[in-house]
Structures are given as structure tokens and as C-alpha cells.
Specification:
With about 375 residues, the protein is an alpha+beta fold. The chain has two domains: about 90 residues, Cytochrome Bc1 Complex, Chain D, domain 2; about 240 residues, monomeric porin ompg (Porin), CATH 2.40.160.40. Helices cover about 15% and strands about 35% of the residues. The protein is built from six helices and 13 strands. It has a twelve-stranded antiparallel β-barrel with strand order 1-2-3-5-6-7-8-9-10-11-12-13. It binds heme C (HEC).
């Protein structure tokens, strides 16, 4: 590893540990377990006028307000289970405005203690009766390369740019969409441009179509496991080296673990299995991301997630070496609603480095289930 990468790693570790000691994390931790019974009384006093007896909203005629498009129906598991208790609590304490939502939603931070808000949220979680939906707490920050287990509704534009070797970059336009309780489809369209012997060549890479399914999700344990099956169509211009030149099957497993301190681990194990192995060899890949989310303090406004990825890949040919890369990065939410995020890192080959370039990698992510791209920026 180069001196630059080592310094970056050390800085990340120092920042992460300094912040953790200052901030409180709340994801899975409570000073006492919330009491939904207690929350019911509170809900009936303070929330029912707008959110209704059943949680699906008071009839518009009985209120003087015009509900915003994002007004939640708490009986709809598809609208609520992806939202975290931390995000909900933030809105209840500081009001809708604090997360770029409607100002009709009042702030209760001065009326209710932290425990009582946990109680009322525990009661409101009961409005979604189907417990099979994986909870949004298990939706860990997306790493630059390692795929996560949680199914998503998002668009990601991810760029990898050479900083050593011949100039070149790849932009992946990725669309992910949930369906049913546990499933997600993914389409990834890569666009390449490269300086090849002083001539710029550009073109499409191999387009991926994939389906992911959650096999296991448990909020209390903080664990989630998914399997994905994908096909890379040979749409790339393989003459310029953009694509495998043959249809490739890509199965993988992703396992994510969240700890009560908001530290997380993400693992991905998979294979690339080309139809014609005479053109492109089969390979195995193993990826891991370890990181920490810093979000406890409302005044910080943003959610910061420093992470380090460890990326390994090996051809299934005799005598092939393992390509190891390390990728320290920082993800940050950039909209008040936290539905638009940015992540930036440097990917450095550490073994088998001949012909493998160091890259600057970054993405812009839009979680479109949480609102339009241009909404939710202002507090
Ligand atoms: C005056 C009407 C009103 C009252 C009273 C009210 N709310 Fe709301 N609440 C809203 C509106 C409107 C929204 C939707 C905001 C948006 O999506 O822009 C909302 C949204 C929410 C959300 C969802 C935020 C999100 O991220 O989608 C939660 C959670 C919530 N309210 C909890 C409560 C609780 C708990 C109480 C009682 C302690 C309460 N509300 C009382 C109007 C109200």
C-alpha cells in the first residue's frame, strides 16, 4: 500500500474513533425497552388528530390541513418499514421541517421525553401488521463496490477513474427497485471511456440484469442475508476491452451485520461465470466493507459513514494470483431528508499490481422512495 493510502486509512480511523466517543448512537440501543402500551395513550392524545385512529391518516375533512404527498400511511408496511426509528424520532423531536418534510408535522421535543417518544413509536410500528418486511435499520450505508443485502429503491451513478496508468473511466448508471416484501431488481448500465495508445475509445460495457432476494433479516440481531442472481449481457465492445465478450452469470451472497454502536460489516461472496470460458475465465470474488455511521447528534445535520472496503478477486485458472485492493471511503448524506448521498474513495491495488491502476471512485445516490430528487433539501 502506498504512503498516501496508509495516511488516508489512519486519518479515517482517527476521525471515526474521535466522533464515536462524542456521539450517541441510537439504532439498536435503548436506555430501557420501549413500551407500546404506554405509547398508545400518548398516540391517542397527541397524534390521532392528524394520523388517525388506525394510523392511516385522519379524514381530510376533520383537519384543516392539506396532506403532503409524502404523508405516511402507517398501516402500509411498504411505506414505513424502510424508515428507521432514528429518522422517525428525529421528525417527532424536531418536527417535519428538520428533515425537509412538511411543517404541519409539529416538533414534540419539548413536550415528550426521549423514552416517551420511543414508546409512541413502538406503538405506531404495530400499525404495520406484517412482520416479514425487513426493517430499514438493516439498510446499511451503500459501499462503493461491495453490494449490500438490503433491497433498495434507488438510482446510483457511480464513477471509477484511473489516477495512475492510462487515463480512463467507467460510469455505471444503476437502477434498483423493490418488489414484493423481500425482492429487488437491478439494472446496471456501464459506460466506458479510455485512452488506448493515445486514442480515446468509448462505449457501452456489459449491461447487468439481476434479481435479489432477502433470505433472512432480523432487526434485534442486526443481521440480514440476501442472495442475488445476475446476468451480464455481452453488450460491451470487447474489441476495446469493454466487456467479457460472452454472456456471464453472476450469483452472489451478501451478509450484513449492524452492531449497537452503529458499526457495521458487509460481506459479499460471488462468482463470475462466463458462458464461453475460452474468451473470459471464470472468477471468484470476495468483498468486505467495515464502517461506522455517525448520526446521533442532530446539530451535525448530516450522516457521515467512513468505511474501508477490502476487495479480492481470483481467476479460476491454475496458478492465478489473488488481486487484493483496499478502498477507504467516506459516505455523506447531502439532502436534509438524507435521500441523496455522496460517497468518495480511493481504490488501491495491493497485490498483483502489474497493469492494475489506482482509481478514484465516487457515486451520487438518490433514494427515490423518499421523495423527488429536488425535494427535501431545505430545513
Ligand atoms: C398537526 C398534525 C400532526 C400531528 C398532531 C402529528 N403529526 Fe406526525 N405528521 C404530520 C404530517 C403532515 C406528516 C407528513 C410530513 C411529510 O411527509 O411531509 C407527519 C409525519 C410523521 C412521521 C413520519 C416522518 C417520516 O419520516 O416520514 C412520523 C413518525 C410522525 N409524523 C409521528 C407523529 C407522532 C408520534 C405524533 C404525536 C406525538 C404526530 N406525528 C403528530 C402531521 C401531524
Amino acid at each position: 500500500m502506498s504512503a498516501g493510502a496508509r495516511t488516508f486509512l489512519v486519518c479515517l480511523a482517527v476521525v471515526a474513533s474521535a466522533c464515536t466517543s462524542v456521539l450517541l448512537s441510537q439504532t439498536l440501543k435503548y436506555s430501557k425497552p420501549p413500551d407500546a402500551k404506554n405509547g398508545e395513550g400518548l398516540y391517542k392524545n397527541g397524534c390521532i388528530a392528524c394520523h388517525g385512529i388506525k394510523g392511516n391518516g385522519a379524514p381530510q375533512t376533520s383537519t384543516e390541513f392539506q396532506w403532503p404527498d409524502t404523508f405516511p400511511d402507517f398501516t402500509r408496511c411498504d411505506q414505513t418499514t424502510a424508515e428507521t426509528n432514528v429518522a422517525y424520532k428525529d421528525v417527532v423531536v424536531h418536527g417535519g421541517r428538520s428533515r425537509g418534510l412538511s411543517e404541519i408535522m409539529p416538533a414534540f421535543g419539548e413536550l415528550l421525553t426521549s423514552e416517551r417518544i420511543d414508546d409512541v413509536l413502538a406503538y405506531m410500528r404495530g400499525f404495520c401488521a406484517d412482520k416479514r418486511w425487513p426493517r430499514g435499520e438493516l439498510n446499511l450505508p451503500r459501499a462503493l463496490v461491495t453490494e449490500k443485502a438490503y433491497p433498495e429503491d434507488e438510482v446510483v451513478i457511480s464513477t471509477a477513474m484511473n489516477v495512475t496508468g492510462a487515463p480512463g473511466f467507467t460510469i455505471d448508471v444503476i437502477h434498483e427497485q423493490r418488489f414484493g416484501i423481500n425482492n429487488q431488481i437491478e439494472i446496471d448500465v456501464p459506460i466506458n471511456a479510455q485512452d488506448q495508445n493515445h486514442a480515446w475509445n468509448s462505449g457501452l460495457g456489459d449491461i447487468t440484469f439481476a434479481v435479489k432476494r432477502v433470505m433472512f433479516a432480523n432487526l434485534r440481531k442486526g443481521s440480514i442475508l440476501s442472495l442475488q442472481g445476475g446476468v451480464l449481457a455481452p453488450t460491451g465492445n470487447s474489441k476495446h476491452g469493454f466487456g467479457n465478450g460472452t454472456t456471464t452469470f453472476e450469483p452472489f451472497a451478501a451478509f450484513d451485520q449492524l452492531f449497537p454502536t452503529n458499526t457495521f460489516l458487509q460481506f459479499q461472496l460471488g462468482a463470475d461465470l462466463p458462458h464461453r470460458t475460452d474468451i473470459t475465465p471464470q472468477s471468484l470474488f470476495w468483498r468486505a466493507a467495515v464502517g461506522q455511521t455517525l448520526a446521533g447528534d442532530h446539530r451535525l445535520g448530516r450522516m457521515w459513514s467512513p468505511m474501508v472496503e477490502f476487495l479480492a478477486e481470483r481467476n479460476l485458472k491454475d496458478g492465478a494470483k489473488i488481486n487484493w485492493d483496499v478502498l477507504p471511503e467516506l459516505q455523506v448524506t447531502i439532502s436534509a431528508r438524507q435521500h441523496v448521498r455522496f460517497d468518495l474513495g480511493v481504490r488501491t491495488p495491493v497485490t498483483n499490481t502489474a497493469g492494475r491502476d489506482k482509481q478514484l471512485v465516487f457515486y451520487l445516490l438518490w433514494d427515490w422512495a423518499d421523495g423527488k430528487l429536488w425535494e427535501g433539501w431545505k430545513k
